[in-house]
Structures are given as C-alpha cells and as structure tokens.
Amino acid sequence: MSAPLTRTEVCELLAVSPKSLYLWERDGLIPSPRRDRRNWRVYSPKDVAAIRRFLGREPAGKRAATPPGEPWVGGLSARNQLTGTIVALRRSGLMCEIVLRLGDGQEIASIITEASANRLGLRKGYEATAVIKATEVMMMR
Questions:
Q1: Close Cβ partners of 69 (under 8 Å, ≥ 6 residues apart)
Q2: Most distant CA pair in the chain, distance
Q3: How far is residue 79's CA from residue 21's CA, in Å, rounded to a whole number?
Q4: In this structure, which long-range contacts are made by residues 46-52, counting pairs with CB atoms below 8 Å and at least 24 apart in sequence?
Q5: How far is CA 22 from CA 39, 41, 75, in A?
Q6: CA 17: distance to chain centroid?
C-alpha cells in the first residue's frame, strides 16, 4: 500500500490550492482525510482517488459517463466546456499549441505552457475538454 500524502503533496500532485482542498472538504464535496499525531491532514490513496473523481481526472477509460447537462470539470465556475479530440499538438520550447476538434468538426486552439501539457498528459488522439472563462464575448454578423 502507498504511503499517505501530506496536503502539500496532494496539492502539487493535483495542481490545486490548499484553500480549495479545505473548502471542498468543508462543503462535503470530498471526504475528510484522517489526521496524524500532529493533527495534520494525511491523504490515503483512496482519498486522492476521490479527489481525482471530483475533479474529473480519473485515469483514461475509468471516467464515468457525465449526466446530461452536467459539466465533467468539477469545482470550476466556467460553464463553457467543449469536449473534443486533440488533433494537433505543437511544442515550441516553453509553449505548446493544442488544437481540439469538436464533434461537429469545428476546431478550437489553446496555447498553454509545455509543462502544463506534460502534466495533463495531453497527446494527439486523446479526448480533452476546453474550459472557457471570458468576461467578454464578441459577436459579428
């Protein structure tokens, strides 16, 4: 069995803030981890798996079907979530361009750091979701 992880290790592993973990635990969205002799939170592999499920980051092939109308990216206020297939991934040192083909054939591109692309395990042919949060949306005719 794997050794329990500290809150800092879980935050680094899942790229979330300690405050987010605290709020999700307080609101009952994730299970409360056990405490060690110092009263520090320690997370078992089962706790980490539950947090991954909450975040929608289960290993490939294990993600449950999303109920209709429900976004699979938990814990975010962004409602514009477009799921598709990665058709291109262009790395150029520090940055990486990802092109996502949506179900109707349209494509959307995103520029993120190469480190983020590696951390997310993005690869050509994989399914991914673009989460869009914008203060302005322009329209033209």
A1: none
A2: 64
A3: 21
A4: 47/10, 48/5, 48/10, 48/13, 48/14, 51/10, 51/14, 51/16, 51/21, 51/24, 52/14
A5: 14, 10, 13
A6: 13
Is the pTM above the cut of 0.90? Answer: no
Tokens found for residue 72: 């699979």
What distance in Å separates the CA atoms of residue 44 and residue 52, rounded to the nearest whole number?
12
43 C-beta neighbours (distance < 10 Å), count? 24
Q: How confident is the prediction along the chain (141 residues), in pLDDT tens digits per residue? A: 578 899 988 888 888 888 888 888 998 889 999 999 999 999 999 999 899 888 876 654 444 444 444 444 555 666 678 888 999 999 998 999 999 998 888 999 999 999 999 988 999 999 888 888 777 777 788
R_g (Cα) of the chain, nearest Å: 17
- Chain centroid to CA 72: 9
Beta bridge partners of 82: 130
